[in-house]
Amino acid sequence: MTRTVVLAGASGYGATYVREIAELEGQGRVRLVGLCDLQPLDTDTYKQFGDRPFDTRLDRLMAETRPDLAIVATPIHTHLPLSRQVLNAGSHLLLEKPPAPSAAEWREILTLARHKSLSCQVGFQSLGSGAYTRLAELMAAGELGEIRGIGCYGAWSRDAAYYQRATWAGRRELNGVPVADGALTNPFAHAVATALALDGSTGWDDIVGLEAELLRVRDIQVDDTSCLRLRTGRNTVITIAVTLAAETPSEPVIVVHGTQRRAELHYTRDLLVLDGQPEHHGRTSPLENLLANLGDGVPLQCDIAACGAFTRVLEHINATPTPRLISERWLTHDGGGPGAKTHIPGVEQAVRASAEQLSTFTELAEPWAV
Ligand SMILES: NC(=O)c1ccc[n+]([C@@H]2O[C@H](COP(=O)([O-])OP(=O)(O)OC[C@H]3O[C@@H](n4cnc5c(N)ncnc54)[C@H](O)[C@@H]3O)[C@@H](O)[C@H]2O)c1
Fold first, then answer.
1. 35 ligand 1 Cβ < 6 A
2. How close is the Cα of 354 to the center of ligand 1, in Å?
3. Phi, psi for 120 (deg, rounded to 5)
4. Residue range 132-147: mean pLDDT, rounded
């Protein structure tokens, strides 16, 4: 069956959906019936889909095209209004992560989707990885022994241009509305959501303890170097230590410390390393999974209802004071202009130590964090 699709947000991350939709159209699985963006389509997208209805207003496009589903890949603070327009039009929704910049907005989308009996998938694509599924199954079957804890480390590097690319980048709020573009709630949101899902702790009430050390190296409103420690209702300790100020970037890793086995999930690479043995897996995208959900009732990889614990973390972060600026004496700088980068020498080791020892930066006595 061919499902009709509207895409809101055709550039930025939306370009990923443009490519995927083109592929799925080639297989006869979807038909793109409209695109919505505030900006004109870029040359590549125009070449591909310039013949389709285009509108800057999603509600109008939804009314005209009445698609089976719509994808919302627009800035975080637009998720609620655009999701309302999709769900009120009676279409299923694929909403990019994080689903909403506040708990109230997440609840409203969830309630509306339930009320309308529509599927709402959130674009945490790490949850569609075969590596994630295999690890979750091994943990549930007790193959790792008792879980002593889950630690995640991530060390990426972002330049000045990253924060200049959009008005909402690096912001907690914009014109009075929450945005929540911090390291833990946006670039490393997959780490938080995936660690919680591995523990089977995705509900709002599944978190019983929450500590966050939020720091920044730049003149931004949000954290770029952060350590989160959670305790879940299953008594699992989860730490997530991340930075966007690494000198030597590497892909993030979730370490599951079992009493019998150790597992490392490289969630951006579909790689699972079990006691040192690598296993490469494939993945099912959030869109393919949503199509299977609509067609055959396959469970959603990331139902919006399963973002409760994640949203509780986000709400906690929103409520903390502005992240502390790390003193200049602990920082180095590289380049100028849009390519300018700031580094915290040694931060790569710090985030890793946090994941291994389930400790916070302060407990590790990292001088820039104390
Ligand atoms: N799943 C992932 O790995 C991943 C990666 C990056 C970004 N994202 C998410 O994708 C979303 C978009 O992020 P981005 O960096 O591409 O944002 P962006 O600022 O680049 O905007 C994306 C597109 O949305 C359009 N847009 C903005 N407001 C709109 C509106 N009201 N109606 C219609 N179109 C609108 C913009 O013009 C742009 O073309 C965010 O939720 C972000 O967190 C997900």
1. no
2. 31
3. -135, 105
4. 98
